[in-house]
């Protein structure tokens, strides 16, 4: 970025940052995961704890990542090391990035399977299978069961998602995709609002609001706090170097705080709206809030099958869910690809194909455990079967650990001075921010960990 850039092109690259970061952040985490983990963890109290995690941990860590990217102005793996060198600190800090690469791989391996469900539901919507249910919950439950119970179907749809991603990443059609995000994200948002209004008007609105916004802490277990914290990282795409990568393009003069808050706010609003679209249907049709990973796909289609133009709206909706998932998948691919290109000297195309193949193989673990194969569904304290365990370990352990290191790195290791303040471009609240990053964020992560393993006395 040259110093003579006009105001309008700076504005557009600030917008480009917000679009790319929102494209990565808004995805299955909001539409699929947040509603079902909220249901499993008792509703309102979970939502409240989650909002605190976004505010006191998620946003501060996102700002720290964007700052590392802006200072380092290079790829995520190098950015942390480069910033460390400039401040005369050990470049071992760049290993934090390695943990991120591994977590990215593991997340992708189950994320692509769920994205495959969304593809399947485009087909079910367009072929009339959803409208044929005529509001009968049993038919919709059966449809979902027939998808998840079939290893062949799961492999087919997962392969489509991985294939499209590898194609996009290796053919450099990302530019076109970025233009698509510009229109798809607002379109998804408008459609989500329509579905939410319909579902609140025709379903159990009162029950949904009661469930989501009246905190009952007796329903929130110790591990529920950890799930809320882990989800704040997962949903904001933190700890994997993604915000570091995008931060490298942040123009001078842009407030790191403002842009991060915009992204986090957009992400949170989508998640809450998804909840308000799903829960009125859930309560009106006697579906259990704790139904698990199938919740989105077992509930909304009932509403679609009742709605005027339901088949059409359902098709559009799942196309957009697929798009939202795809943009997140593409961002997740970046760190593993960069690893093979920068550390192993591969070309971008072969690195992309290799990552695609590895993730496809790894996805079989989740596919078999979701389909109920006995070898893939053993019980452990962290969850039952590969899918649960991969989800739990990545979101609730790996991401918060990386985030803790990032907070310590920027909060304690880097010299915070006038220049840092200038780089953050914050007119107000900079010292409060640094205080939060130094004390509150690390303390919150540590307390939630200790709490979850039962070390704390309460
Ligand atoms: N934030 C994405 C979502 O909510 C998922 C994601 C996690 C993407 C981690 C990138 C990195 O769907
Ligand atoms: Na998200």
From TrEMBL:
Compartment annotation: Membrane
Pfam families: SNF
Residue ranges crossing the lipid bilayer per the database entry: 43-68, 99-124, 154-173, 185-205, 225-249, 261-288, 308-341, 353-377, 389-412, 433-458
Membrane topology: Multi-pass membrane protein
Keywords for this protein: Membrane, Symport, Transmembrane, Transmembrane helix, Transport
InterPro entries documented for this protein: Na/ntran_symport, SNS_sf, YocR/YhdH-like
Superkingdom, natural source: Bacteria
Entry similarity comment: Belongs to the sodium:neurotransmitter symporter (SNF) (TC 2.A.22) family.
Official protein name in the record: Transporter
